[in-house]
């Protein structure tokens, strides 16, 4: 299982991070390799949990033994992955950054016009009604139809969003 799961998944992590896409530049190979090794160590520990106590202690003891096997692998690899994610440089391309700036400007305009607050209040009222209708249908033992208020609320929320975006 180790050869057929942990090694290919960590390889896919490396290949995915070093691949250039339409919106992102590739990651440096050394940093991607550190990510891949950390993912491999984490997966190694997770795969070792069910069989680790039997290999190390000679018999299956308890949940504590399984977690004791996981700790030296999972905690350091999660720490490395967290550090790498926190210190990650920007990989988005210039045109994506310009589009993000346009979106931020539009969001500021949407918020200052008062439409965002009105949309939020209307959406909250809509979801309160949907949850109430859901509970009512459950009380009436019509649980087969209880999903319908959520679909209707989602559709109405999209209509409200379109209306307040154009306003």
Kindly summarize this structure in a few lines.
With 167 residues, the chain is mostly helical. It has helices spanning 2-17, 29-57, 63-86, 94-112, 115-139, 148-166. The radius of gyration is 25 Å and the shape is flat.
Structural class determined from secondary elements: mainly alpha
Q: Which regions are unreliable across 5 or more consecutive residues at pLDDT < 50? A: none
**What percent of the residues sit in helical stretches (DSSP H or I)?**
over 70%
Q: Report mean pLDDT, rounded to a whole number.
A: 89
Beta-strand percent range: under 5%
| Major sheet details | none
Q: Return Rg in Å.
A: 25 Å
Assembly status: single chain
Distance between the termini: 57 Å
Number of distinct beta strands: 0
Describe the structure.
The structure is a single chain. The chain has 167 residues and is mainly α. Helix content is 79%, strand content 0%. Helix 5 packs antiparallel against helix 6. It is flat.
């Amino acid at each position: 299982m180790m050869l057929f799961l942990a090694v290919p998944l960590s390889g896919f992590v490396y290949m995915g991070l070093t691949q250039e896409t339409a919106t992102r530049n590739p990651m440096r190979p050394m940093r991607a390799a550190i990510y891949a090794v950390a993912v491999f160590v984490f997966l190694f520990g997770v795969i070792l949990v069910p069989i680790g106590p039997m290999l190390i202690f000679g018999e299956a003891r308890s949940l504590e033994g399984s977690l004791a096997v996981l700790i030296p692998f999972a905690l350091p690899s999660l720490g490395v992955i967290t550090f790498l994610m926190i210190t990650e440089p920007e990989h988005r391309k210039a045109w994506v950054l310009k589009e993000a700036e346009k979106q931020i400007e539009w969001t500021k305009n949407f918020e200052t016009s008062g439409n965002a607050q009105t949309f939020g209040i209307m959406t909250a009222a809509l979801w309160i009604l949907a949850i109430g209708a859901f509970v009512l249908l459950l009380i009436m033992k019509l649980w087969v139809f209880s999903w319908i208020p959520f679909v209707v609320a989602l559709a109405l929320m999209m209509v409200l969003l379109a209306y307040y975006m154009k306003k």
